[in-house]
Amino acid sequence: MDDLVELLAYERIRQLAARYALAVDTRDISTLVGLFVPDVRVGRDRRGREALAEDFTTQLRAIGRSVLNVGTHVIDLVDEDHATGWVYTKAEIEADGRWIHQAILYEDTYERVDKVWGFVRRIHRLWYGAEPGVNPLTLPPANWPEHHTGLGTVPECFATWQTFWR
Q1: How far apart are CA 71 and CA 74, in angstroms?
Q2: Considering the entire predicted model, what is its pTM?
């Protein structure tokens, strides 16, 4: 892959994460699902952007306002049409009459279809979710998406973390 193709891939994939955050916060479902490949898998047995729109609508109706702030974004290009990535996101959400702060790690798979990069899969991993002023390390497990607050599974889910502390 030549340098220009590589740089364009990095930038276009970075834009996916930023546009995802804005689309979630503005509840722009059409833009949100357009960031995914056309045949995106939704759950175990559904596919396509229409199914994804229904899923996102249900998820986002369960919360009020949200503010997603994209941070660190690591992208690994597999080839000209495939990549994986990790995206750190700090979120503030209105849930059940409370204001919650979350630290999220998205594990992404990207694909370029008809010269357009899109998400194939986006796994939402939670570091923690807590109300301001609460030490997240003192919280019970969140079991996200069951609860918006609580301790998540990151960083303990990483083999490198486990090995480091052995």
Answers
A1: 10
A2: 0.88
